[in-house]
Amino acid sequence: MTAANKSKPKYTNRALPSKGVDWLNNPVFNKGTAFTDAERDALGLRGLLPPHVQSMDEQVRRVMANFRAKSSDLERYIQLVALQDRNETLFYRVVMDHLEEMMPIIYTPTVGKACQEFGHIFRRSRGMYVSLNDRGNVQKVLENWPTRDVKVIVVTDGERILGLGDLGASGMGIPIGKLSLYTACAGIHPTQCLPITIDVGTNNENFLKDPLYTGLRQKRLTGADYDAMIEEFIVAARKTFPGVLIQFEDFGNSNAFRLLERYRHEVCTFNDDIQGTGSVALAGVLSALRITGGKMSDHRVLMLGAGEAGMGIADNIVAVLREEGLTLAEARKRIWFVDSKGLIVKSREGLVAHKLHYAHEHAPCSDLLSAVKSIKPTMLVGVSGQARAFTEEIVKLMGANNPRPVIFALSNPTSKAECTAEEAYKWTDGRAVFASGSPFAPVTLNGKTHVPGQGNNAYIFPGVGLGVVASGAKRVTDSMFVTAAKSLATLLREEELAEGRIYPSLKRIHEVSLKIAVAVAEEAYATKLTDQTRPADLTAFIKSQMFQPEYNHYA
Predict the structure, then answer these.
(1) CB neighbour list of residue 522: distance below 8 Å, 6 or more residues apart
(2) Among 212, 234, 246, 290, which is most buried by a count of CB atoms within 10 Å?
(3) pTM for this structure?
(4) Looking at 31, 113, 178, 426, which residue is catalytic?
(5) Hey, is 129 helix, strand or coil?
(6) Which domains, from first to last, does the chain contain?
(7) Dihedral pair phi/psi, residue 128, rounded to 5°
(8) Tens digits of per-residue pLDDT, 72-101?
(9) Known catalytic membership, residue 178
(10) Contact 352/318 with Cβ under 8 angstroms?
């Protein structure tokens, strides 16, 4: 059977290539050396490939041998990007089979370095760029995408990439990486994922002077013109890709809260830096309670960093506190913030709106150490991007005040972490309940091995997205993220807790994503956020929607 009369293969929404070399140049359909003899004859590939037909397992072994032979993580990142551009099915088989090894490469921390070097390592364009030059024509630009069956868009304007700041168009590595995790962790088909960068300029002087920078060489657009650009994009994206889920990613604080509030009630959208981070941190807190004992209302939380992540975490903890019977005001008083000016207190003038909720009556404290001494928190959470902000004195003080101090150093990438796992365990004699944003290796102290938890948003957003897409939900709510956090916390096994983990092993990520997707979908059906009829077996239905990286047969 030839390609011309072959029905469209499972899992794709793209037209089949027309001639031999086109099959090899199309990452959705390319199988490389795994094309069978029959396919080589039917598709015009005879002579275009080495004669030995390899199995996917053989291909994976070759990829992994080359991967492990690379001299740096950035080289490994470049290799994987090249594989993704060449053969998506093989890329996802490699990633899904070796997720713990691949996650730090395709996402944090290596993706941060890749974004910093984006113009220098650029090989082939992936996703879409919408720039100021496209104003008035954004819909026409989006219509250049080869399919309308897009289910998830991750979009950034590159202003606040991880803890690295304004990287402009070089921030494209983040949407690409996030969507790779949507597929690898939750099985949303890669052809249904679209990474987009909105290039409104950059204030990064190094990039503006870099001859290899790939974005617009001008200062960032702001104000009403910026808002009009975002509005045109949102309208065009919804019209071009009906029902699409739009995830805001790594926007600056000044825009992130405002844009989320502007669109959350009328568009199927969420901000992962606010809601996703808040959810994964809440899951870690709920797991930590299984170690420390007591209820959330028994704890005092001190947050270092009052941006998107910090506020998202605080709001999710407040939701749990209210479930325990506290009023909104009482719940908020359990949470304190330290920002660049010190402890956020009610007497401080000029506080922005999102900080006012957590401005309490208290004498000013100029720095984190004095705040820890005064507040005596049971939980210390860092989302500041300030490397080593949790000093030995601070961590030891947490240990002196608490039998099991909860210390989350969540800033990304690894270079920005507030402290390392080894420091947290060493300075508390192994009593800390620790989590970080980027991975740290297990730590052996006094004969006991501690396995630090990684508060990776990949535990949350892929499952939430899958639940939204599978159910056809029209909106994404805050309660979905609380539900996701609770689902994640229940999946932690006793033996994992005994190791010090507060998140399940990444080897179980598909189990995690499926459970979260089902819980989110159930909420969509219960709250009538979808017009779809609930399937009798929701778990089986969602599982059937999950992409598996297996080659189709074309002859």
Answers:
(1) 538
(2) 246
(3) 0.93
(4) 178
(5) strand
(6) 3-102 (1.20.1370.30), 107-267 (3.40.50.10380), 273-555 (3.40.50.720)
(7) -130, 145
(8) 999 999 999 999 999 999 999 999 999 999
(9) yes
(10) no
